[in-house]
Amino acid sequence: MSEAARRLKHPAPSSRDEVPEPDGRTYPGVSVPPGPRPGMPRNMMNTRRTESVDEPLKVLAGRLPEDLRGHVFVAGPSVRAGTPALASDGLVLRLDFDGAGAKFTHALMRSPSYYARQRVDAGATARGPLTRALNRFRDTTLVPASLTLGIQETPNTAPFLVEGEKLLLVTTDAGRPWAIDPRTLRAVTPLGYRHEWAAAAPSPWAFPLLQATAHPAVAPEPARPASPEAPERQRPRLFFTNHGPKWPLGPGYTQLVSWDTWEHRLHHWKLVDAATGADVVTASVHQLAVTRDYVVLLDSNFPINFWKIAFQAVAPGMKRAGRLVDWMTSEPSAPQAVFWVVRRADLRPSSETLSAEDAPAVPAYRFQSGGGGLHLAALYENPDDELTLVVAHSPTEDLTHALEEGEPLINGERVKDWQVGMSTAVPVTRSSVGVHRIDMKRLRMRSSLYSHDDFTWGLTVFSGPGLVNGELESHLRMNGTPANDVIPPEELALYVNSDGFTADMVPEALYQLYRPVVGDKEGLPIRDGRAASFFKFFVHSGRFEGYVLPTGWYGFAPQFVPSARFPAVPHWKGYLVALVVSDPSAALPPDSTGDEVWIFDSQDLAKGPICRLGSRNFEIGMTLHTTFVPEGLLAELDGMPEGDAEPYCVDVAKDFDVGALEKTYLEWPEELFPRVPRALFAPWRLGVKWALNFPKLREVFEKDVYPRFPRPRR
After folding, report:
1. Is residue 492 within 8 Å of 540, Cβ to Cβ?
2. Cα–Cα dist 590/609, whole Å
3. Any binding-site annotation on 286?
4. What is the CA angle 197-348-288, rounded to 5?
5. Buried-exposed string 52-73: b where 16+ CB fall within 10 A, e elsewhere
6. Basic and acidic residues bias located where (predicted)?
7. Any domain includes 26
8. Is residue 25 part of a domain?
9. Which among 443, 475, 583 has a CA at the least distance from the CA of 162?
10. Could you tell me how far CA 283 lies from the centroid of its own chain?
């Protein structure tokens, strides 16, 4: 009998008085000495690029609970000092727990543009120094970019499990979601062909700039087939966006996109303001949430500075001039969080919604409150058309800049070489957690904001049961062990990590950009700082409980993991698994590099970690988002749908057909200016053929790209 079947045959006790606690409930917290220096650890910008497979993690201190089982997937950039963190190649880490021990596997995310870049940068398509310079990829703050080929897709942000598809995705804000093999962690297929997406910038690029939601959302109701012949049965479930900002190359647009889990196609709806009829244009939609009747988009603190990226791509060696262009052209993030709410009843798939270029319009309702932010979650039920949202508000957190060597900092010092490339993720004001209730009948919003001086200086990522985008309940259903109880209102909570405030990560120019919001420096803890922390926020009471990290430690990616004794133990009780970073020192255990995995008792974070794990080969550095996969589910994530259907797979050879790419490049100006005689574009055609060297580019794709990816069986 399988473990999942055994658990289903032994449901939780009927009386709450008989409900046991997780094993770790009685474990004491372990003492952690401070790091060797306050501020940003050097290890944050240091990732071991040699990939690991089933590498053991040793217990450095404390005790590993026997009921900690399953897999925690972590995504992030493979950072190294000198390269912009958010533009780094994607990295996926899997932590495996079996009750007796722990191990880790990590691998780089290699997309077609990753493989093409290796050969192009090595000169495979060059006719000489000039064409090599035109074709090679340059690191900009947010994406690697080639003047002639476009943007490298670097899935490096969040792992996301698609219920009903058996697909584990890794996402990014600047590219398509990519499905990975959860065992090898290799990239397998993007979601959608290139022609199914609208580009964020008009160009003929082989690798276009595609902007999407890094945090999709799946509604938990059963899937239904979608077809134009049966509109009453259509109810899209997996949502993300396809959007483009307003910048000199275009007016911008925002499309809500649904993935058809029956027919494996993308459906698009262009959003228009319900009040004005104008197109909705967002700076970025890093995350969205779904409820029973609505989809909620958060316009986030991720504006794209076109001039800065263009300058970095054209003149990569002119660092000081690039910094000047950056701060002269940058604009602050919006001071208020802007929410766009769409009725799911308006999202009717049809043949028209299959077009990314001419998507039908649907109304979106605008609300704002609370200060800017990146992440939100929602209660799935919206009784009487009232939505409940929980949002991490960091109004001056601005991820569109990276630290530059020698750049003046807010404390009077300058950026060191080992800091170069770190994103300016530390806000210059205290943050808050917002609980917002939107009344869609009256189109009103009520907001409550909660702050805590120990915990809300810079809110980054969170996880937790009971909220859509927490994802836990859907993963339990997929595992055959559905949650058998509703979380009591007083227990509904999010687990959040805070960056704190450290002056050596805040450029003086960033402070000046937000000075109208922040005020004088005297109000900032520049000298003493605020330590990073992990905390638990109770949604209905606004209460905070948590653990402040010792000086010199920095935390990432907290992931709630239920006790493996579920369903005897309620599914909202268990552990918090988190990655932490400090610099090497004599105070560390012998097997620690300073990069460690800490385990917390979810019911008592304040006592500190109950277990510290590490390895001499565990060097992960900065990470971003996580998800939990139950122990028995990993083997099921084969991408195979029910019945005889073959697994979804984009044919990379068709997606990047070099003949079609060449035709697009050559005809691009004719499409922009159809009334201009074709003969006048002859210099363009000659220049493109010379610069891109299509015969050599074809060799790159045929030898170094196509063979790396599976082909559809039909």
Report:
1. yes
2. 18
3. yes
4. 60
5. beeeebbbbbbebbbbbbbbbb
6. 15-24
7. no
8. no
9. 475
10. 16
Domain extent, residue 459, equals 42-111+153-650
CA 230 to chain centre: 34
Cβ neighbours for 589, distance < 8 A, ≥ 6 positions apart: 60, 61, 612, 614
Residue 29, number of CB atoms within 10 A of its CB: 17
d(CA 241, CA 212): 5
Average pLDDT value for residue range 17-39: 89
Q: How many C-beta atoms lie closer than 10 Å to residue 126's C-beta?
A: 19
Distance, CA of 286 to chain centre: 7
Helix, strand and coil content of the chain, in percent to the nearest 5, comes to 20, 30, 50
How is residue 633 written in tokens? Answer: 């589910």
Q: Which two tokens stand for residue 439?
A: 């009344």
Residue 673 lies in a domain: no
Structure tokens at 372: 């800017």
pLDDT, mean of residues 590-617: 97
Cis bond before residue 427 (omega within 30° of 0): no
Distance between terminal CA atoms of the chain? 36
Average pLDDT over residues 56-74: 97
Beta sheet of 150-151, edge-to-edge order:
137-139, 144-146, 150-151
Give the model's confidence band at 640: pLDDT under 50 very low, under 70 low, under 90 confident, else very high. low
% residues pLDDT > 70 (the chain): 94
Strand, coil or helix: 43: helix
Q: What letter represents residue 602's amino acid?
A: S
Annotated binding residue 215: yes
**Segment holding 165, helix H or strand E:** none
Number of domains in the chain: 1
What average pLDDT score do residues 336-353 get?
A: 93
The token duo for 115 is 């493989």
CA 353 – CA 357 distance, rounded (Å): 10
Enclosing H/E stretch for 310: helix 306-314
Establish if 670 belongs to a structural domain: no
| pLDDT of the residue at 426 | 78
Report d(CA 551, CA 46) in Å as an integer.
19
Surface-to-core class of residue 386, CB atoms within 10 Å of its CB (0-12 exposed, 13-18 middle, 19+ buried): middle
Q: Is the dihedral of CA 142, 146, 150, 151 positive or negative?
A: negative
Which residues share a beta bridge with 454? none
Which single residue is written with the structure tokens 């009591």?
488
Rounded CA gap, 28 and 18, in Å?
A: 23
Q: Among the residues of 479-628, which ranges form H helices? A: 508-518
User: What's the CA gap between 242 and 254, in Å, rounded?
Assistant: 6
Cβ contacts of 69 within 8 Å, gap of 6 or more: 97, 98, 99, 564, 630, 631
């900690």: which residue's tokens?
Answer: 68
Q: Which two tokens stand for residue 588?
A: 């560390």
- The SS3 assignment for 176 reads coil
Residue 460 has which token pair? 């980054």
**Phi (first) and psi of residue 586, to 5 degrees:** -65, -20
Query: Within 10 A of 275 (CB to CB), how many other CB atoms are there?
Result: 11
Residues 6 or more apart in contact with residue 523 via CB below 8 angstroms: none
